[in-house]
Design goal:
The complex is a heterodimer of chains A (about 90) and B (about 400). Chain A has helices at about 5-15, 30-35, 40-55, 70-90. Chain A is mainly α and about 90 residues long. In chain A, helix 1 crosses helix 3 (about 40-55) and helix 1 (about 5-15) packs across helix 4. Chain B starts with 9 loop residues before the first strand and ends in a 6-residue tail after the last helix. Classes of the chains: A mainly alpha (about 90), B alpha+beta (about 400). The interface of A and B includes residues 37, 39, 51 and 59 of A.
């Protein structure tokens, strides 16, 4: 997936847990939990949804790296690339 | 119309999910009811065949109104009042207010009252204000006597009527309902408050290890550990688990944790996780996830609204560090958790940084005292120091 597609995946996951939000109104550089009033259960549901759509398994220790929208997309891009590199090495 | 919360006087039957002649089994959802707080799916707690639907969709009726009749095998074909659910595991003598009231029409105390339609809240107000129910003209649906009627009859000031729970007005109606219930709690319950700091190092370290072994969808949250610790501690302290009804404490038959869930857009609802002390962490986690999802989607069930025996409120990692709760009447205790924070912690003569949560107890002094409350908090702490046993 490219950056835009990963961005859309995150937005869809956010919209599922917080259907009242306006995706266009999300500030990409501001903390998502504070901005959208999401709790740990919401965040877990977002991580599960992202995993289902991208196959990327986000370990708990990395949760703080996904605190903003732009950080989340950057993290997923990097994780996707690492996965591809690892696959290439094994191949 | 079942009581789906101690503050509920009436409800609107939104939808029937069954029709006369349908066979139903215990646990089937037979109707959807709109309280001022939420839309609730009403379950039936007896097997049988729907005989007659007595209330049409869109009608607002007082609590205790018979919604339909059910033919049961035991009744040998005779209709028995039903859909309103009986609780799945009620206290030995179900109190009239915690929504564990059987669904038969409310007016059953004395023969002369049988034809009166009176909500439990109005009946209590009549008792408190010394008003003769037979002398009151009801202004509610089908002449039902409401609390406002009682207050008018007693010459007491009548508060503004609560708005109907139309979707756009639900937030306002919910705020009124919460306000009324919490005001009643503060007015009637002599609260006492205790707090203790709990070192969460072991619990969180265990959780981290455990989650490493799990798939994303099966991960546990600290909330599951906290709920499990409370449930198991409460099981050992029955004086904290039950209801204050008619001037006496009634212990509950099971540990049904009312889990306070904040709703997006404001408001709060506290449905029950049934038999939480007997559930594994996985069961508690999936139960909690399911409750939160359905609470926020407006799809809670009547059994979940009717019989919590003690409430737990957890402010979560974004929340303040300390909460002094307000007891949900007629329950007698509420356990609160603030956010888990890294704090200086002295142990073995050394000071280090540890994750700490402040656990609080708000309890009813009519039912227990600070010694018992302290024991409950200590038991919760002990449980969290052995997370592998939860």
């Amino acid at each position: 997936m490219n950056e835009q597609q990963l961005h859309d995946v995150v937005i869809r996951a956010l919209s599922e847990v917080a259907p009242d939000i306006d995706p266009a109104g999300i500030d990409p550089g501001t903390d998502l939990a504070e901005q959208l009033d999401i709790d740990s259960m919401d965040f877990l549901n977002i991580v599960v949804a992202v995993h289902e759509q991208t196959g990327i398994e986000i370990p708990e220790r990395d949760y703080p790296k996904l605190s903003t929208l732009e950080d989340a997309v950057a993290y997923l891009l990097a994780a996707q690339q690492q996965g591809a590199d690892a696959e290439a090495r094994e191949g | 119309m079942p009581t789906l919360g101690a503050d509920m006087e009436s409800g609107t039957l939104l939808e029937w999910r069954v029709k006369p002649g349908d066979a139903v089994k215990r646990g089937d959802i037979v109707a959807v009811v709109d309280t001022s707080k939420a839309e609730i799916e009403v379950e039936i707690f007896e097997d049988g065949v729907i005989d007659e639907l007595l209330v049409s969709e869109g009608t607002r009726v007082p609590v205790g109104t018979v919604l339909a009749t059910l033919r049961t095998g035991a009744a040998d074909g005779a209709p028995a009042p039903s859909p309103a659910p009986a609780p799945p595991s009620p206290a030995p003598a179900p109190p009239p207010e915690p929504a564990v009231t059987p669904p038969v029409a409310a007016p059953q105390r004395a023969p002369e009252e049988r034809r009166l339609r009176v909500s439990p809240v109005a009946r209590r107000a009549a008792e408190q204000l010394g008003v003769d129910l037979a002398a009151v003209a009801g202004s509610g649906p089908d002449g039902a006597i409401t609390k406002a009627d009682i207050e008018r009859a007693a010459g007491a000031p009548t508060p503004a009527a609560a708005p109907a729970a139309e979707p756009g007005e639900r937030a306002g109606a919910m705020r009124l309902a919460i306000g009324a219930l919490m005001a009643r709690s503060k007015r009637e319950i002599p609260h006492y408050y205790l707090q203790t700091q709990i070192d969460m190092s072991r619990a969180l370290a265990w959780l981290q290890e455990e989650n490493l072994r799990r798939s994303v969808a099966d991960r546990l949250l600290p909330s599951a550990l906290l709920l499990s610790a409370v449930a198991r501690a409460v099981a050992a302290m029955p004086a904290m688990n039950g209801f204050w009804v008619d001037g006496a404490f009634r212990a509950a038959g099971g540990v049904h944790l009312g889990v306070a869930i904040s709703l997006r857009g404001g408001g709060l609802i506290a449905p029950a996780l049934h038999d939480a002390d007997r559930k594994s962490l996985d069961e508690l986690m999936s139960g909690l996830r399911d409750l939160v999802t359905r609470a926020r989607a407006g799809r809670l069930r009547s059994s979940e609204m009717s019989d919590p025996t003690i409430t737990v409120t957890n402010l979560g990692e974004q929340g303040a560090e300390l909460v002094h709760g307000v007891i949900y009447p007629p329950q007698v205790a509420l356990v609160g958790f603030g956010g888990i924070r890294e704090r200086p912690w002295a142990a073995d003569g050394m000071i280090g940084a540890r994750p700490v949560v402040i656990a609080t107890l708000a309890a009813d002094h009519r039912a227990s005292d600070g010694h018992a409350g302290s024991r409950l908090l200590k038991l919760i702490d002990n449980r969290l120091q052995e997370p592998q046993e939860l």
